[in-house]
Amino acid sequence: MQQSDIDPHGHGHVFLGHDHDRNTRRVLWVVALTLCMMIGEIVAGLLFNSMALLADGFHMATHAGALTVAAIAYLLARRYAGERRFTFGTGKIGDLAGFASALVLGLVALGIGIESLVRFINPQPVAFFEATLIAVLGLLVNLLSAALLGPDHHHHDHAHDHHDHETADHGHDNNLRSAYVHVLADALTSVLAIAALLGGRFLGWTWLDPAMGLVGAAVIAVWSWSLMRAASSVLLDMTDPHVETEIRELVAEKDGARIVDLHLWRVGPTGHAAIVSVVGDDADDIRRRLRPVHEIVHLTVEARGAVSQPPAA
């Protein structure tokens, strides 16, 4: 006997995050801010003949591109959410975009590191005053962008609705997280640039600029690796150990009930699908037992007959 899905009478497969549309608007606003700042830095670099400003402007262009990918991912996930060819919905598009953004972030870190080493060997003249002004402006734009993308505890919704299959916690939204990390990386480079420019202007420490570049590259590389691991775990359908433990404990509450096969994977931000094969209980009771596991948005239960034990040797 096999019973499938939380609702046997049919259901949708839209496993987008509860704040999906709101997050889309937030990322689009940040894309606009980043593009404006990028253009401003490139124009200022040309006007002031500052390679530092030009380099930072083109560096910001890579972040603008990654943020644009994040915005497009949100739009595509919503656009194709109801199409049946996506068996478990489009909730993973954001993780795919997050993984791509992590790769871009890693390349940015590599580029900053190489450029910093080159400047150690061959120091370049810097227009300290103009570059500092633009770096401060860039930091303000990054802080505003971070405020737009950061956690919003006042908007957090703790409700769990298995009918629309949407979840409230955007902490596992790797697409939003990738956009946030790109903004933080820009903010970090701005802070380090300001420190280096001030040290170079007032103390004559020209070595501080490439040193800060190496520090920034190392931190950004760590962020990139962390984001890549989080996104790849979703793309490769890795099991969430906390949810798996909760499922096993709830099934084991009844004497004689035993899980013989369990598959658990994420289909959207904090939303999981599960296939549970059990002996010693019926499918309806298993579904009732697993109802408290709010992370499960798509459940398939298989109730098997008792498994005979092999005779003792």
Question: How would you explain this protein's 3D organization?
Answer:
This protein has helices spanning 20-48, 51-79, 93-121, 128-149, 174-202, 208-235, 241-251, 283-289, and strands at residues 2-4, 258-268, 271-279, 296-304. The chain is α+β, with helices and mostly antiparallel strands and 313 residues long. It folds into 2 domains: 20-235, Alpha-lytic protease prodomain-like; 240-304, Alpha-Beta Plaits (2-Layer Sandwich). It has a 4-stranded mixed β-sheet, with helices on one face. α8 (283-289) links the parallel β3 and β4 (296-304). α1 (20-48) runs antiparallel to α2 (51-79), α1 (20-48) runs antiparallel to α4 and α2 runs antiparallel to α3 (93-121). The two termini are 32 Å apart.
Secondary structure category: alpha+beta
Estimate the strand proportion: 5-15%
Query: What is the approximate shape?
Result: elongated
CATH class of the largest domain: Mainly Alpha
First-residue to last-residue Cα separation = 32 Å
Rg for CA atoms: 25 Å
Biggest beta sheet summary = 4 strands, mixed
- Determine the number of helices (DSSP H or I, runs of at least 4 residues): 8
Give helix and strand order, one letter per element, not per position: EHHHHHHHEEHE
Question: pLDDT under 50 segments (min length 5)?
Answer: 1-10, 153-171
Main β-sheet, spatial strand arrangement: 1-4-3-2
Number of strands: 4
**In CATH terms, what is the architecture of the largest domain?**
Up-down Bundle
CATH superfamily membership of the largest domain, which one? Cation efflux protein transmembrane domain
The tally of domains stands at: 2
Instruction: Report the helical percentage.
Output: 55-70%
CATH topology (fold) name of the largest domain? Alpha-lytic protease prodomain-like
